[in-house]
Amino acid sequence: MHPILADRRRLAIYLSAWLLVEMLLVLLLVRGGTLRLVPAAIVAAPLTILYAFICLSAFYVCRTAPLETTALERTLTVHIAAAAVSSGIWLVCARWLAAAAARMSPWFADASAAIASQQALILTMGLLLFLLASAVHYVLLAAERSRDVERQALELRVLAREAELRALRAQIDPHFLFNSLHSIGALTGSDPAGARRMAILLADFLRDTISLGGRDRIPLADELKLLERFLAIERVRFGERLSVELRLDDAANVCEIPPLLLQPIVENAVTHGIAGLVDGGTVAIRTLRNGSRLAIEVENPCDPDRRPGRGTGVGLANVRRRLDAAFGGDAWMKSSEENGRFKVELSLPA
Amino acid sequence: MLTAIIVDDEALARQVLREYLQTLGGIEVIAECANGFDAVKAVTDRPPDLLFLDIQMPKLDGFEVLELLADTARGLAVIFVTAYDEYALRAFEVHAVDYLLKPFAAERLAEAVARATARVGHAAAQNQAAALAARKREGPLERVLIRDGAQVHVLPVETIDFVEAQDDYAAFHAAGKSYLKEQTLAELESRLDPARFVRVHRSFIVNVERIARVELYAKDSRIAILRDGKKLPVSRAGYARLQSLL
Question: Cα B167 to chain center, whole Å?
């Protein structure tokens, strides 16, 4: 798209700048001979407009010779050649117009003579004007490109954020939602106040998930609050089968971690650990800050004879990938199962 | 009056079903179970007309419960109740009457019950097919379920040393104990992982990891000696199968 022709406002500004050229041209013609001011202005007007449009073609010359990839000599040669051709055409047109005008009315009788006497100046002016137009077009092209780059960067950022959000959404098991909604439905009959509490817990959990998920890093304390909400909801479902033990180091609370890093681990502990046990058990979460390191541990009992499959693998692999992305080699995660106890340990820079 | 048993590991989920059924009327809930073992026991003690069955449960999942109940519960109409829609196809294969997705409305339950009521009494043949379908689960067997009265044993296949045919039964030998299950060796052979279990003889399937060595016993007749010293006969065809695997 032509940066000036395609934009009415720019075209208006461009053409009004050419008023100066018109005045200059009139001055040249009046001083060149006996032509008076008004006929000189009438001859100059169409010539100016014509050349204004001829100069717009500088855009195509600029495009064939982008500054970044073209040698300076070549750029200059191309533009000077184009400018010479353009101003030549302009002069021919001017002479033809003057002659035509003279034939129409004696008023313009001196027009041809005026142009003939000033043709060197008109040629020079045409040359310089075309080169100026080239410069203007280069500036416009550069501005456009930098805006493109900016827009692309913005689009990329939006895409990246969307991808991250999709990943986060995938971390929340939809069955957790279905089961929670089923529990709320069940409570409405027997314990309306409990149903309301559960609905609020669920809403708070979802809101936290969305708002925390949008950030790069969050304090460990915020993640722990989210986990407590999650476990409170699951406790409504599992009743006495699920209990929770938190052993938290206050000094660790300010450490920053990627959001929802621990959530899938704790969700695993419930759905693949506690849910598989007739009598349930305790999910234990421990945090400890030791100098420049932060240690987090999630431990739960599990049925050693449980059916394989429906694996915890995907969730934990996701956590590991996010750790790598956030800390490079400076963080690790280890999971182990021994004597019916499943344990996930994380170590991060504090 | 129809009878029903509710099986779900979540108390609230059982409660909502009970409430719905009460409002619906005409159905008496005779038992509630929180896990698969209890379900097998309750259904064996007093088979109901309707069985509301959760799928994801501790110890035994809903499909395993059905497999164990296949012989007892003729005429049992099964309605699966779960938050997971990915089992619907399998539920259809085992001829479940309906498949309720949590959370569900009372009207949806009424529909399922109506469908089940129409099928009560006609379900016998279908449940036999259901048992077969449940046994032909995709992929090799991961664990063997053995019912001993109301008690259920779960044997992970890797704990099995060998299986011996005894008339219509298969005797599973694992960790020094043996368990009897009504099953033919041919059917069992088709379901076990062929890279792990080999039919070495008309009456024996052995876990290849347990074989210490194979010795020539007489002309054309061999015996396999297991790590624990137990000796099993190996037929000529069985020896060929063993060789092709090792």
Answer: 21
From B35, B101, B142, residue closest to A278, measured CB to CB: B35
Q: Could you say which of B16, B34, B102 has the minimum Cβ distance to residue A178?
A: B102
Contact between A142 and A59 under an 8 Å Cβ cutoff? The reply is no
Report whether A220 contacts A227 (CB < 8 A).
no
Confidence of residue A309 (pLDDT cuts 50, 70, 90): low
Give this complex's ipTM.
0.71
User: Which DSSP category does A209 fall into?
Assistant: H
Q: Which residues in chain A are closer than 8 Å to B84, comparing Cβ atoms? A: 175
The rounded distance, in Å, linking the Cα atoms of B230 and B232 is 7
Contact criterion met (CB < 8 Å) for B16 and A305: no
pLDDT band for position B132 (cuts 50, 70, 90): low
Chain A residue numbers touching B15 (CB-CB < 8 A): 186, 189-190
Contacts of A340 in chain B (CB under 8 A): none
Distance CA B104, CA A185 (A): 9
Q: List Cα–Cα distances, B237 to A32, B162, B192, B201, in angstroms.
A: 119, 17, 18, 8
Pairwise CB contact (< 8 Å): A182 & B103 = yes
